[in-house]
Input
Amino acid sequence: MLVGDKTWDVIVLVEYPSSKVFLEMVNSPEYHKAHVDREQGLERTVLYATSPMGAGARFSE
Output
């Protein structure tokens, strides 16, 4: 379980070169055309934007 009380079948991690590249992608006509199929094929999707923690970083307990 990630956040909340939802269970997940699949989790996908994706890294983009920058937030600018990601925003350009999601605003492109090609993405919008493909996104229709994605929305119809999935019950729900959630996007969690994150940043690298850096070398030697640890989660706080």
